[in-house]
Amino acid sequence: MLSFIPTPIGNPQDITIRALKLFEKASLFLCEDTRQTKRLLRILESRFDLIYPSSADFISFNEHNGTQRLKEIGTRIENEFVVYVSDAGMPVISDPGQLLVVFLQQNQLEYDVLPGANALTTAYASSGFTSGKFSFFAFLPHKGEDRREALVEVLNAPQNAIIYESPHRLIKLLEEIVEMEPDRELFLAKELTKKFQTYYRDSASNLLKELSQIEIRGEWVVIFQANSNISKTLSYNDILSLDIQPKVKAKLLSKICDKSVKECYENIIKSTAKI
Fold it and tell me: By residue range, what is the domain housing residue 248?
């Protein structure tokens, strides 16, 4: 039996009673990072008198070693009481635990997912944006055309869009948004549930001016309010004029028209040849 256990995204008091009881039964902890999990357990021991088996094993399970780990511990999952713990928040969502779910389903093994703390829904409930619909894009690629393509997709989402961003890339993100849509309204949540939790809501350009003046720390959730004035943020011609690789441009164009990526690419090459 394997249980996926959500952990606090900041404040240790957000741990659930069910989670504590399952920790006390586990013989194997699969951890996104064993150091983070052991640190959390030490806090829970001191604050909530948690007592977990001293003989329990702690094994890392992440995007780099997950496939190999399944070969090593498959029989233990079937025969022992196992828990999977992400670094913070809800497991499996933007998390290597996805590999485990597929493995359990394919092998018809019993599993359970506990409800718990989640940064994206906590931030969205705090945003004040009235629509009940949103899209979640997790982290954007770190750099290059892949990042620009992903950001254009976020800006063109037909409903509010949510991403995660690290402190050392937040200003870069705001600069990129301002370059394309300076007036887009954003909601930013910093260090949710922690001592220095802070909310910001304003246009991208105003937020860039404000946050450029302070030291950026902590993890961030960024919510883009959908553009209600036009169905697509960037028009066909807007994307056509972008200084990006033709293949990337073709992918973007195909998202806002009825043509295939191949057709868009051919049109780009033809239009370039005429110049």
Answer: 235-275
